[in-house]
C-alpha cells in the first residue's frame, strides 16, 4: 500500500513539474514566440493525462524548449494547432478537458488506443472541429449532447468503445455531419431519426447487427465462418475485382461474398464507406443489390444475395433435357433486362454510375432466370486504390471502346459499347468472342457479323444450340443493335434509353441502322485516328451526393 501511495505521489509530482515548467517557459519573453501560450499549456496537460508507455509524446516537454508546433503528431497553421493525430500509439489514461483550449482545432484523431474515462463535454464548445475520431478505445459514459451543436463537424466516429445511454437527438439534426459511426457500444433507448444525408452506423448489445444506412456491417469472423474460412470449395468465381465465395449466415440465408483486390486497402475507411454507401443506395430489379460489407486493416469484403442460376456466360453453355438452358425468348429478355439496368445507372442516378465491364460473365441470373447486373460501382472503388487511374483503362481487353483503350477515360458510351458485345454473346452463345482459325479472315467478330447481315446469312452466326428456334426479324434487329452500340465514335452510339426503346420495339431498328451503317469510320492507320483527351468520366462528381430516384424496391 505504501509503495502504491509513493508511486501515485511521484506521478502527481511529475505532472505538477510539467505544468510548472510550462509556466516557467511561458514568461513574457517566451510569450513573444509564434505560438499560443494557452495551447502549449493544453498540450502539456493532454500529455499529462495520458499514459504513454512508448514515450511517443516525450517531446511534448516545454523544458526542452523549441517550437511546440514541431512536436510529433501536432500540426499547426500560423502558430495555432489545427490537427492532432495520435492514432495507434498505445496510449491509455484519459482525455483531458484541457483539449478545449485548442480553440482552432479542426481534426482530432485518437483512434486505436486504450484511452478510457468520459468524453469531455467541453469538446462541444470547439466550434472549428470538423473531424473527431475516438474509435477503438475504452471511453465510457454517455455521448455528450453538446457534440450535436458543432456547426462544422462532418465526421464523428465513436465506434468500438464502452459508451452507454441514449444517442442524443442533437446528432440526428446536426447541421454538417455526413458520417456518423456509433457502432459497437452499449447504447440503449429509442434511436432518433437521422437525416437522409447522414451515413450512419449504429450499434444495439440487444443484437449484433450494425448498419451503414440500410447496409449491414459484418464482423470479419462472421464472414470467415460463413465461407468456411474462405475455402476454395466455396469459390463461385473470380474476376477483375476479386474472388467471390458462397457463404451461409447463421440465419440460414445464402450469400455471395466478394473479397476485393488488395489495392482497395489503400482506400481510406471514410472514402470506402462513402462509396459503399452509394452502391447500397442503388436499388433496381435488374441490378444486384448490395446488402452488407466488412472492413478490417487488410480486408475489404462486400456481401450480396446469392444468385442460384449463376452467370449468363455459364448458362449459355448449359442444356436442360437436350435443349439449351437459354432459348431465344429468354436471351431477348436478358438483353432487355440488362439494358434497363444500365439505363437506371446512367440516367436515374446522380451522378451517373458507369460499369466499365459489361459482359456475360458479369450478368447473373436469379431463380427465375431474370438478369441482374453485378459489380456496378466497383470500377471507381478499385480506381481509388491506385495512383495511375488516368492512364489505366478499366475493363476487359478486346471489349473496350477505342477512346477508353487509348485515353483511359470512360463514359456511359463505354457501357453501350460493352452492351453491344453482350448482344453478340447472346446471339452466338460463344464462350469467347475470338474467331477460330479459318472462320473469318477479314477482321474480328463485329466485321463478320456486319458482313453476314449484309449478305442475309445470319443463320450461320446464331448459336447452334438453338438451331432454327428463333425469329429471323428479331435476330436481324439484335445484330443491328449490337453494331450500332459498337460504333467507333462514342457520339455515334445510341444512349441506353434509345437501346431500351429499340429492344421493346418502340423504335425502328432497321431505319436507325440504315441511317448509321455508312457513317465513315476512321482508318486505324491514319494520323487522325487518335482521340483528343475528352472528359468522358462522370465519376469526377462526388458520389456522396448521389440521390437514387424511382427506386423499384429491394429484390
Notable characteristics:
single chain, 555 residues, alpha/beta, Leucine-rich repeat, LRR (right-handed beta-alpha superhelix), Phosphorylase Kinase, domain 1, Transferase(Phosphotransferase), domain 1, 3 domains, 14-stranded mixed sheet, 4-stranded parallel sheet, 14 helices, 28% helix, elongated, disordered N terminus
The neighbouring-strand order within the major sheet is 2-3-5-7-9-11-13-14-15-19-20-18-17-16
- The helix content, as a percent range, equals 25-40%
What composes the largest sheet?
14 strands, mixed
Question: Which structural class fits the helix and strand makeup?
Answer: alpha/beta
Level-2 CATH architecture of the largest domain: Orthogonal Bundle
At the fourth CATH level, what is the homologous superfamily of the largest domain? Transferase(Phosphotransferase) domain 1
Cα gyration radius (Å): 30 Å
Mean pLDDT: 79
Mind telling me the CATH class of the largest domain? Mainly Alpha
Named CATH topology of the largest domain: Transferase(Phosphotransferase), domain 1
Low-confidence region ranges:
1-33, 206-211, 386-394, 525-555
Total helical elements: 14
Give the number of DSSP strands.
24
Taken from the alpha-carbon principal axes, the silhouette is elongated
Spatial gap, N to C terminus: 66 Å
Report the sheet-strand fraction. Answer: 15-25%
Amino acid at each position: 500500500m505504501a509503495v502504491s501511495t509513493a508511486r501515485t505521489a511521484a506521478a502527481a509530482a511529475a505532472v505538477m513539474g510539467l505544468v510548472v515548467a510550462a509556466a516557467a517557459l511561458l514568461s513574457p519573453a517566451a510569450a513573444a514566440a509564434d505560438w499560443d501560450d494557452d495551447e502549449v499549456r493544453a498540450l502539456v496537460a493532454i500529455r499529462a493525462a495520458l499514459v504513454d508507455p512508448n514515450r511517443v509524446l516525450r517531446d511534448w516537454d516545454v523544458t526542452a524548449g523549441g517550437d511546440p508546433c514541431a512536436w510529433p503528431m501536432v500540426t499547426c497553421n500560423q502558430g495555432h494547432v489545427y490537427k492532432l493525430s495520435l492514432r495507434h500509439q498505445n496510449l491509455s489514461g484519459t482525455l483531458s478537458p484541457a483539449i478545449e483550449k485548442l480553440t482552432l482545432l479542426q481534426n482530432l484523431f485518437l483512434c486505436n488506443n486504450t484511452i478510457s474515462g468520459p468524453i469531455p463535454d467541453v469538446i462541444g464548445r470547439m466550434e472549428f472541429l470538423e473531424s473527431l475520431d475516438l474509435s477503438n478505445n475504452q471511453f465510457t459514459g454517455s455521448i455528450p449532447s453538446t457534440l450535436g451543436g458543432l456547426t462544422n463537424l462532418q465526421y464523428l466516429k465513436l465506434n468500438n468503445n464502452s459508451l452507454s445511454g441514449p444517442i442524443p437527438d442533437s446528432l440526428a439534426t446536426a447541421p454538417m455531419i455526413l458520417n456518423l459511426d456509433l457502432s459497437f457500444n452499449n447504447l440503449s433507448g429509442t434511436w432518433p431519426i437521422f437525416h437522409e444525408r447522414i451515413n450512419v452506423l449504429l450499434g444495439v448489445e440487444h443484437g449484433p447487427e450494425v448498419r451503414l444506412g440500410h447496409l449491414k456491417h459484418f464482423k470479419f469472423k462472421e464472414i470467415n465462418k460463413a465461407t468456411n474460412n474462405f475455402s476454395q470449395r466455396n469459390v463461385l468465381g473470380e474476376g477483375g475485382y476479386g474472388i467471390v465465395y458462397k457463404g451461409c449466415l447463421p440465419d440460414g440465408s445464402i450469400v455471395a461474398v466478394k473479397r476485393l483486390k488488395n489495392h482497395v486497402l489503400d482506400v481510406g475507411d471514410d472514402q470506402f464507406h462513402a462509396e459503399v454507401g452509394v452502391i447500397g443506395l442503388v436499388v433496381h430489379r435488374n441490378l444486384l443489390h448490395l446488402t452488407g460489407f466488412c472492413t478490417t486493416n487488410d480486408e475489404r469484403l462486400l456481401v450480396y444475395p446469392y444468385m442460384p442460376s449463376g452467370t449468363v456466360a455459364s448458362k449459355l453453355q448449359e442444356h436442360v433435357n437436350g435443349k439449351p438452358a437459354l432459348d431465344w425468348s429468354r436471351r431477348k429478355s436478358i438483353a432487355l433486362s440488362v439494358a434497363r439496368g444500365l439505363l437506371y445507372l446512367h440516367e436515374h442516378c446522380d451522378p451517373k454510375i458507369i460499369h466499365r465491364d459489361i459482359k456475360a460473365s458479369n450478368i447473373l441470373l436469379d431463380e427465375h432466370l431474370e438478369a441482374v447486373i453485378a459489380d456496378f460501382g466497383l470500377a471507381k472503388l478499385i480506381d481509388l486504390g491506385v495512383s495511375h487511374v488516368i492512364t489505366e483503362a478499366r475493363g476487359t481487353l478486346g471489349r473496350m471502346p477505342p477512346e477508353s483503350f487509348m485515353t483511359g477515360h470512360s463514359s456511359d458510351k463505354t457501357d453501350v459499347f460493352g452492351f453491344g458485345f453482350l448482344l453478340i454473346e447472346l446471339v452466338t452463345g460463344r464462350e469467347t468472342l475470338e474467331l477460330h482459325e479459318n472462320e473469318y479472315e477479314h477482321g474480328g467478330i463485329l466485321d463478320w457479323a456486319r458482313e453476314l447481315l449484309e449478305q442475309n446469312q445470319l443463320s450461320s452466326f446464331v448459336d447452334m444450340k438453338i438451331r432454327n428456334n428463333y425469329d429471323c426479324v428479331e435476330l436481324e434487329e439484335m445484330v443491328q443493335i449490337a453494331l450500332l452500340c459498337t460504333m467507333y465514335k462514342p457520339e455515334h452510339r445510341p444512349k441506353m434509353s434509345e437501346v431500351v426503346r429499340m429492344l421493346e420495339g418502340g423504335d425502328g431498328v432497321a431505319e436507325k441502322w440504315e441511317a448509321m451503317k455508312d457513317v465513315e469510320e476512321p482508318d486505324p492507320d491514319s494520323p487522325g485516328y487518335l482521340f483528343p483527351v475528352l472528359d468522358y468520366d462522370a465519376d469526377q462528381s462526388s458520389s456522396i451526393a448521389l440521390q437514387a430516384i424511382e427506386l423499384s424496391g429491394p429484390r
